[in-house]
Amino acid sequence: MTKRTYEKDAVFIEQADDLEDLVKDKRLNWRSSPSKAIRRQRRYKKRLINELLRYDDYKGF
Fold it and tell me: When comparing pLDDT for 14 and 39, which is higher?
């Protein structure tokens, strides 16, 4: 089973392609429809992007 995606994992993102590799749906086979899985992935990606922006503001970049 893949590990859950957390906001603190945003520090591992260096390029945009890393976002696709980092966000994994732990319950992919349990979702009732593919559209719900896609929606969940989009939500996790948005949370990680917001965390990246917050991290950049903190670092002063």
Answer: 39
